[in-house]
Amino acid sequence: MTRIFSGVKPTGHLTLGNHLGAIRGWAEVDQHRADSVFCVVDLHALTVDHDPARVRRLSRQAATLLLASGIDPERSVLFVQSHVDEHARLSYLLECVASDGEMRRMIQYKEKAPVEQARGGSVRLSLLTYPVLMAADILAYGADEVPVGEDQTQHVELTRDLAVRFNQRYGQTFTVPRATRPEVAARVMDLQDPTSKMGKSHESGAGIVYLLDEPDAVRKKIMRAVTDSGSEVVYDRENRPGVSNLLEILAASEGGDPEDLSGAYESYGALKKDTADAVVELLRPVRERHRELVRDSSYVEEVLRAGAERAREMSRPTVDAAYRAIGLLPPA
Ligand code: AQP
User: Rounded to two decimals, what is the model's pTM?
Assistant: First the structure.
């Protein structure tokens, strides 16, 4: 059976981009067709300036939101990355096959390093090496597929390169995974700046729809979305990024094709209104279920405990095999 691995990083409140680009597909499609492993990748949240209490809070919230979005612990393994040592163990071995130049070419590093510098801090070494830890996350589970939004494609490519290189040098150890992504809304853009990705750690909340936003807030943000000059509703991501982003959000939320939908609208106002309604309806059950789960925190804790136990069992044989293959003396 196909094995899937994917994760979310608790660097902020989860967004509509995370949901449409990844989480919804995991819940509605992936976990029904494949052996699925989903993870709150909290170690990745330490790569930028962070508040420890906030990371803890956001990790719990992300796990709760994954459950609220429909991840079913009877079907999928759900756990927190730092609860399973295998990720960090394997990451070090992969650092020994990755190169410094490769890391510096990563787009996310190039985008995030200057932001960290501008905040007055130094750039953490872990920000540079984080794609290697992500490769370890994936390879430890022998994943065949990694369902991610478009922004993560380059990291999955790196994971493939590291797996192939390790296998060639030290013998067949890892499955070489491939990225999959949704047909629509693989890159949801910021509503206030449709040329940048809607990112959970961005500071301008006005352009970001959070999964836990109240319906009124969702409506306001979408009704105030920046649109393009002109008034015709056309799907053209390059030249009409604002309107195209709304068409993609609408198409992904209620089904359909953005290009086909464009023909149904004569004004930006009508498109915004329908998009806002569709997103409010899409998120309603997630918010409701989240509210119930928050009241039942022992259930979430038990899911994560059992998930980590299962994740350890799944990942240990591959990581142990990698330790042997690379030349480390097994403990007596
Ligand atoms: N705007 C987006 N559109 C589509 N997919 C997206 N994803 C993230 N943003 C969008 C996908 O959501 C999954 C989880 O993302 P992540 O937690 O690994 O974080 P990220 O990719 O670094 O993006 P974020 O949410 O914007 O976080 P920050 O701001 O901290 O970088 C991934 O599959 C991702 O592709």
Answer: 0.96
The answer to the question of whether 272 is labelled as a binding residue is no
Q: Which domains does the chain have, with CATH numbers?
A: 3-181+297-326 (3.40.50.620), 205-291 (1.10.240.10)
Q: What mean pLDDT, rounded, does the chain reach?
A: 96
Taking the CA atoms of residue 255, residue 25, residue 11 and residue 289 in that order, the dihedral angle to the nearest 10 degrees is 80
pLDDT at 242 exceeding the cut of 90: yes
Cβ pair 28, 67 in contact under 8 A: no
Answer for the pair 258, 244: CB distance below 8 angstroms, yes or no: yes
Amino acid at site 323:
Y
Pick from 211, 149, 109, 177: which is nearest to 25 by CA? 149
**Is 110 designated active site?**
no
Sign of the torsion angle spanned by Cα atoms 105, 15, 35, 298? positive
Region label for 212, one of left (φ > 0), alpha (ψ between -120 and 50) or beta (otherwise): alpha
Q: Is 254 in the pocket of ligand 1 (CB under 6 A)?
A: no
Residue 185 · residue 19 · CB < 8 Å: no
- Indicate if 272 belongs to the active site: no
Q: Which among 158, 157, 49 has a CA at the least distance from the CA of 103?
A: 158
8 is in an annotated binding site: no
Q: Are 51 and 96 in contact (CB under 8 A)?
A: no
Q: Are 289 and 212 in contact (CB under 8 A)?
A: no
